């Protein structure tokens, strides 16, 4: 297997012997080794290039150079696309007027990403579903577009026209080229992200990230504010353990339970439908740990460098989830489609909300869906997944509004409802994301035909027969409080952090 994929790796061949020994593609080996190297480098960066010991200029230079080195090691000359995309958009920021700069940056960044995705998929290597250079470009696109809108908010819009979140994120001065490259291509997030706000990154580089959050109640001691820097050690150890478990599950189960077996003619003909459903759930359960490993390791790398501090819990322990991308338990035990999505790829959901949903004057929901589909790539399976997801979301909302009130009379009924909705949510998620894994139209439609498109038909009947009823204010407040207690909804938590920083300032 490793030797078959060697030709598709455009990066370094230094680790080819390791790739052959462990029987994994070379590009994936390069990616994991570079991330582990970034983790060790992050500890060094935090200890020896601490803001108290060196200047922001040195920290920017080192973070950028290390990021470029990792990109070259993994992707070879394809890493130049990162510089080209960043250079084009920075030129627009400098030379275009502030009134239209953000729109031009959005068009150029997303257009360049789409061009690279189209050429990679349809010109060079269709179906190469592994570590590829467009993955980092997706995160860089998020950063470029977010920063362009934040600069526009800070320099071109009136203060009273901004929302509290936009006031917090607004950038009040044009970044230098070094700051811009460091933000886009630093070694902590060059390979797997996650995205973050420019102000948070600059505060981390300059060493001011801890001060506003130390003005919270938990930072008081003997009537004075305590400015000691919290340690991320416990969170890093916890996240690395999660990475090890996720990687072990993925390597051991993904080959035993491949999703492709769900469309095998012999399997479909000889397996009862109930067992097909169970198998699909197990196969998807074995697929998700790959993302858990990548995103959690990336989060640990940022924490090791000192980035990601997000205030304190009520018990006084520090929180290091400022740029966390997922909450595994809330995903695996989600009892609704929305709860699953709120805890999956959190930073991308925030980017879509801030760049598109909050700003689009006409049909923001459809615009957000279109942007998400374009950003993910050009595989037809992605679009099938998003189209199916729209129907699933509408059906789940209608079902919840009409059925859930009948189960709230007692704790037993509520527990039964939670078990049923958990099972339904997991089946619906697996059914929806199969095309996302299979990528092509033919295999995806073959899968849906083997299930007789049963969930598509069910969603259509539910949406037509169960109108969505307006919620009572009390129910909205109770569900909001329950959501904050249970799952720490990503959007509201992040916006609350912005409000807290504004008050502290």
UniProtKB/TrEMBL annotation:
Q: Name one GO biological process term.
A: lipid modification
What InterPro entries has UniProt attached to this entry? LPLAT_7/PORCN-like, MBOAT_fam
Residue segments, region Disordered: 477-505
Any one GO MF term held by the record is: acyltransferase activity
What do the Gene Ontology cellular component annotations say? endoplasmic reticulum membrane
**Biased composition annotated in UniProt, kind: Polar residues:** 490-505
Give the keywords, sorted.
Acyltransferase, Endoplasmic reticulum, Membrane, Transferase, Transmembrane, Transmembrane helix
Q: Which compartments does it reside in?
A: Endoplasmic reticulum membrane
**Where do the TM regions start and end?**
29-49, 61-80, 100-123, 236-254, 266-285, 381-399, 419-441
- The main place the protein resides is endoplasmic reticulum
Is Phosphoprotein one of the keywords UniProt gives this record?
no
Q: Give the signal sequence positions.
A: none
Q: How does it sit in the membrane?
A: Multi-pass membrane protein
Q: Name one Pfam family in it.
A: MBOAT
Protein name as catalogued: Membrane bound O-acyltransferase domain containing 2a
Upper classification of the organism: Eukaryota, Metazoa, Chordata, Craniata, Vertebrata
Please name the gene that encodes this protein: MBOAT2
């Amino acid at each position: 297997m490793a030797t078959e994929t060697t030709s598709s790796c455009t990066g370094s061949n230094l680790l080819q012997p390791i790739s052959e020994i462990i029987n994994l593609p070379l590009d994936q080996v390069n990616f994991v080794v570079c991330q582990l190297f970034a983790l060790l480098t992050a500890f060094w960066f935090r200890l020896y290039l601490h803001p108290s010991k060196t200047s922001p200029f040195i920290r920017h230079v080192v973070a950028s150079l290390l990021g470029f080195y990792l990109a070259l090691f993994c992707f070879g000359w394809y890493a130049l696309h990162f510089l080209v995309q960043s250079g084009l958009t920075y030129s627009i920021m400098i030379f275009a007027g502030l009134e239209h700069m953000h729109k031009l940056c959005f068009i150029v960044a997303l257009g360049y990403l789409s061009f690279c995705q189209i050429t990679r998929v349809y010109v060079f290597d269709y179906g190469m579903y592994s570590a590829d250079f467009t993955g980092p470009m997706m995160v860089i696109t998020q950063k470029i577009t977010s920063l362009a809108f934040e600069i526009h908010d800070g320099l071109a819009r009136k203060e009273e026209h901004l929302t509290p979140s936009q006031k917090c994120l607004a950038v009040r001065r044009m970044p230098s080229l070094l700051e811009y490259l460091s933000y886009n291509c630093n070694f902590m997030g060059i390979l797997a992200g996650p995205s973050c706000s420019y102000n948070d990154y600059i505060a981390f580089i300059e060493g001011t990230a801890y001060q506003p959050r130390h003005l919270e109640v938990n930072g008081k001691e003997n009537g004075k504010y305590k400015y000691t820097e919290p340690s991320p050690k416990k969170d890093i150890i916890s996240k690395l353990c999660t990475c090890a478990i996720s990687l072990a599950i993925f390597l051991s189960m993904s080959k035993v339970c491949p999703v492709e077996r769900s469309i095998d003619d012999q399997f479909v003909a000889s397996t009862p439908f109930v067992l097909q459903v169970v198998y699909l759930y197990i196969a998807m359960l074995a697929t998700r740990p790959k993302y858990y490993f990548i995103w959690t390791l990336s989060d640990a790398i940022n924490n090791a460098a000192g980035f990601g501090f997000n205030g304190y819990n009520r018990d006084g322990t520090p929180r290091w989830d400022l740029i966390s991308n997922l909450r595994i338990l809330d995903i695996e035990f989600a009892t609704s489609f929305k709860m699953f999505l709120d805890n999956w790829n959190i930073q991308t959901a925030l980017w879509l909300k801030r760049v598109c949903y909050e700003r689009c004057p006409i049909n923001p929901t459809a615009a957000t869906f279109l942007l998400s589909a374009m950003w993910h790539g050009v595989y037809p399976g992605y679009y099938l997944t998003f189209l199916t997801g729209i129907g699933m979301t509408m059906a789940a909302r209608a079902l919840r509004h009409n059925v859930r009130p009948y189960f709230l009379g007692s704790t037993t009924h509520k527990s039964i409802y939670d078990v049923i909705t958990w099972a339904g949510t997991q089946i619906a998620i697996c059914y929806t994301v199969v095309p996302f894994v299979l990528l092509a139209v033919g295999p995806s439609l073959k899968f849906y035909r083997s299930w007789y498109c049963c969930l598509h038909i069910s969603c259509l009947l539910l949406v037509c027969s169960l109108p969505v009823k307006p919620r009572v204010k009390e129910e909205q407040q109770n569900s909001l409080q329950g959501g904050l207690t249970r799952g720490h909804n990503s959007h509201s938590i992040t916006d609350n952090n912005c409000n807290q920083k504004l008050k502290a300032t």
